[in-house]
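Sequence in, structure out.
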Amino acid sequence: MKILISNTSESPLYQQIKDQIIDAILKSELAEGDALPSIRAFANDLKVSILTIRRVYDELEKEGFIKSQIGIGTFVSTSNVDLLRDSKRRLVEQKMQDMIQTAKSLDISIQELNEMMIILFEEE
């Protein structure tokens, strides 16, 4: 698992790490039952405080993305993935509604909007 941390990001370190772990779970880069590194090892790898990783793991466990077993380790749990995917879809739908309203106000047809969307989507 590759985690990239930016010291110039407005997002706190624990949030950057947490978001990247969730993205890895959603993209199936981390599967149910996969072991996460120990808090100490993960903190050493990322050169952050163990308190930062503890916070990440605590929040991920509260949200149902991981399970910790005392003396054994921390493992990926996918029990909350469907809920998160649904909330992400709702976020995209809200942004699409904003885009549609803007397009309508500028007299952009749905065909033009679709063409723009396809071009922009494929460029990514």
